[in-house]
């Protein structure tokens, strides 16, 4: 049997083998087949990437913005051509179904499109005569070398929340993909090569925690973006900030969703189950706790349980499959333990998705949808990010109680309401403590021209990814106050 290929880094415009002593197997979670091995690149390889990016920055920032975006237009065209290849790669390494992978790549491309507006998005401000004969203006300049540290669950999209804006603003970039899903970025970097970005503008360094820490400590790295779990987000935020870097760190989530009795039964059932079980619950915008208000419990609970038990589970490249596996055997064991913990804490099992048999995929890390009823507020299952296909049901009597429950959580990534009442929707939008709000929407993912706005322990920082926030994050403002001693008419 031939050994799976060891992945390369891309530094200074060339593919380079890592000297890493340790590698991690990348598996297809639907089969357990080893697809490749991720090297845990040591600090000196981060140093090579940072030095290359710092050298490239001097020239890249001088390329006019209107020319920098020509590279992005070309990239967009190549991404469209490779669309299905990239989506299939996501399904293979992550397990999500092909339609979800396509949706992910579409979101990535949308960020490239928005970043093509940089000549205008990056414009400054000018005030004439702030005092007699004195003008003041603000210009935006790139910050330098920036690095993005990425999670496993959106291997194609999340780097694109950042890199199109970063390079369009004149920065140079290091991408550190998740060690568990690094394959799609290998393909994307081949597209960057075809686009012809100058060497050092975009660099790829594979690795794990030590590689991340080398980035956080490197003096040439000016700004860091992170997406991943809350404990690591907190660590990245603190360490990068202690080293004087600009940093934004998006963390985990535990997204609540409220259903009022006047919500549409069919639409709500379908949207809510898609939100909870899409990508096997491994989305930072997956709904996890479903709170029914009053009469809604009677109608919605059986409908949700029924829809959950009907979901087709299997290999995401096969037609008709609605839910793939979770990412690793460890993840599967952790989720099953959490389900058991929920039962021990007094929840009722409406649908049991543990230890399923998926014919032909016995080596995969599958769970079926699980639904737990009567989840107690404050219990482990109610407060822990499960990151798996588990729906927790709670019931309350009033909208106020439901909003109170929503706001009692430590995360604030997303909260959603299902209703046909405009007044209830407005109250919820106004009072809910979360950065992404859905009204009759189950996955309130902001488009590329809006910030991806986590709150509370779902986010550490000020400026978020995407759109104008990304432009702010990847530029520093310079204010010039200017006086000319003579007027030209007296000079000539
Ligand atoms: P993770 O925190 O395990 O890993 C994320 C990145 O951090 C990886 O690149 C990994 O190599 C690195 N890392 C892991 N441990 C580290 C350590 N001790 N020190 C330094 N670096 C370390 O996250 P994951 O399992 O890949 O992704 C799932 C998590 O990401 C979930 O919690 C999910 O909610 C979150 N997420 C959040 C958002 C958001 O927008 N808020 C989006 C997607 C995913």
Instruction: Please bin the fraction of helical residues.
Output: 25-40%
Radius of gyration: 24 Å
- Number of helices, where a helix is a run of at least 4 consecutive DSSP H or I residues: 17
Could you tell me which ligands this complex binds, including any ions or cofactors?
nicotinamide-adenine-dinucleotide
Architecture overview:
The chain is α/β, with parallel strands linked by helices and 492 residues long. It is 38% helix and 22% strand. It is built from 17 helices and 22 strands. It has helices at 43-60, 65-81, 83-94, 98-115, 118-121, 163-168, 183-195, 209-217, 230-242, 265-277, 296-310, 329-344, 380-383, 399-407, 422-431, 467-473, 488-491, and strands spanning 9-11, 14-16, 23-27, 34-39, 125-131, 134-142, 145-149, 172-176, 202-204, 221-227, 246-250, 255-259, 287-293, 348-351, 370-373, 390-396, 411-412, 414-418, 436-439, 455-456, 459-460, 475-483. The strands form six sheets. It has a seven-stranded mixed beta sheet with strand order 14-15-16-13-12-18-19, sandwiched between helices. A six-stranded mixed beta sheet has the order 9-8-7-10-11-21, sandwiched between helices. The radius of gyration is 24 Å and the shape is globular. Nicotinamide-adenine-dinucleotide (NAD) binds at residues 149-154, 176, 178-179, 208-209, 212-213, 227-229, 232, 235, 250-253, 284, 385, 387, 413, 452, 454, 458.
């Amino acid at each position: 049997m031939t050994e799976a290929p060891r992945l390369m880094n891309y530094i200074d415009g060339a593919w380079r083998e890592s000297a890493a002593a340790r590698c991690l197997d990348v598996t297809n979670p639907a089969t357990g087949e080893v697809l490749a091995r991720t090297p845990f690149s040591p600090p000196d390889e981060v140093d090579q990437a940072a030095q290359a990016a710092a050298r490239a920055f001097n020239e890249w920032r001088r390329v006019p913005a209107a020319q920098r975006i020509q590279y992005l237009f070309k990239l967009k065209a190549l991404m469209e051509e490779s669309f299905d290849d990239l989506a299939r790669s996501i399904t293979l390494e992550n397990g999500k179904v092909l339609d979800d992978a396509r949706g992910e790549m579409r979101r990535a491309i949308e960020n490239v499109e928005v970043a093509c507006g940089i000549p205008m998005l990056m414009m400054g401000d000018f005030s004439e005569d702030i005092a007699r004969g004195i003008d003041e203006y603000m210009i935006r300049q790139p910050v330098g070398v920036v690095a993005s540290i990425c999670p496993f669950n959106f291997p194609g999209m999340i780097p694109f929340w950042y890199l199109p804006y970063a390079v369009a603003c004149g920065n140079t970039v290091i991408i550190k993909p998740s060690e568990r899903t690094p394959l799609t970025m290998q393909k994307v970097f081949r597209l960057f090569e075809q686009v012809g970005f100058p060497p050092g503008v975009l660099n790829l360094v594979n690795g794990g925690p030590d590689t991340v820490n080398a980035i956080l400590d490197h003096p040439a790295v000016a700004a860091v973006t992170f997406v991943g779990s809350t404990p690591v987000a907190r660590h990245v935020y603190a360490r990068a900030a202690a080293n004087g870097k600009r940093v934004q760190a998006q963390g985990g989530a535990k997204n609540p969703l409220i259903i009022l009795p006047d919500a549409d039964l069919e639409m709500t059932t379908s949207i809510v189950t898609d939100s909870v079980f899409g990508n096997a619950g491994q989305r930072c915008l997956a709904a996890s706790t479903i709170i029914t208000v009053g009469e809604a419990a009677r109608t919605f609970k059986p409908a949700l349980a029924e829809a959950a038990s009907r979901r087709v589970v299997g290999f995401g490249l096969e037609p008709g499959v609605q839910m793939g596996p979770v990412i690793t055997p460890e993840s599967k064991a952790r989720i099953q333990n959490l389900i058991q913990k929920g039962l021990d804490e007094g929840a009722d099992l409406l649908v049991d998705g543990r230890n399923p048999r998926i014919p032909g995929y016995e080596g995969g890390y599958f769970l079926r949808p699980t639904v737990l009823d009567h989840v107690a507020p404050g219990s482990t299952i109610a407060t822990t990010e499960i990151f798996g296909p588990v729906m927790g049901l709670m019931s309350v009597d009033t909208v106020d109680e439901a909003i109170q429950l929503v706001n009692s959580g430590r995360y604030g990534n997303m909260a959603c309401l299902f209703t046909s009442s405009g007044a209830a929707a407005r109250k919820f939008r106004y009072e809910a403590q979360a950065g992404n709000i859905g009204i009759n929407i189950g996955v309130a993912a902001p488009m590329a021209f809006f910030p991806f706005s986590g709150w509370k322990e779902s986010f550490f920082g000020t400026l978020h990814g995407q759109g104008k926030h990304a432009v702010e994050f990847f530029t520093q403002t310079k204010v010039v106050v200017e006086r000319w001693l003579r007027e030209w008419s007296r000079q000539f």
